[in-house]
Amino acid sequence: MANYLTWKPDLGNPEKINALQKKRWRFWDDLEPEIKHAASIHRLLQCEFELRECTQREMALKDKLAGYQKKLDTEAGLIQDIKVELLQENKRYWELELQWWVVRSAFQECPFTHGVNFWRSHPRWYMHRVLREDCARRGGCCRRGCGCCSNRQNWPDREFAAGHCTFECHCCENARGFELSQEKKSFYNQIFDLGKDNGYFYRISHSSLMGLILYNDDNPFDLIDDPPPNYETSSRTS
Ligand SMILES: [Zn+2]
Ligand SMILES: [Zn+2]
Ligand SMILES: [Zn+2]
Prior knowledge:
Blueprint: H1 14-30, H2 33-36, H3 41-70, H4 76-104, H5 111-120, H6 129-137, H7 148-151, H8 170-176, H9 182-191, H10 199-210, H11 231-237
Helix pairs in contact: 1-5, 3-4
This protein binds zinc ion (3 copies).
């Protein structure tokens, strides 16, 4: 068996990277429950989803604020309300980031965490084929040529913005042409809740944390698909 502490991945050999990541995941599956009971993959992914929701809500509020400020007849109270909401989201982000570290720091360093760090060291890890498909099928920006998901990595002071659309994405709302009620958002978020043990959770956790697809031997880094934004099409259709 490979010594994970000294093993260096052969980046020129895709099969070895895939096999190594799988071994690292199996290591986690085989760990004694009492060692890993405090560390929750479910909670880690839920927390990352909530952080993306928060950053996308912030961005939507900023877009709305800019729109209102351009209009001469906007009520001052409306602008003030958005500014208050922005302050609240800023606080929420700070708290969620702290919660993320509470969850992440409960994972003791082991081959599993080495695998997660290795996969996520790629600046575009979240553009993995499985994660992009999930975004597109849920009506997210990966369905269109706007390039929002790819660009989120560049948001200042928002490390956890990197990732795909939630129902708070303003670009998605514009493309959809209608606003989703809070009830509808909650309903669909429950269906895709990463707190449950189901096929959806396994697909997302394997791809998000290790770059893996079950029963697939491809080099995870070859599954990163990051097409350039299709600005030409966007301008034609707007
Ligand atoms: Zn979107
Ligand atoms: Zn978009
Ligand atoms: Zn996306």
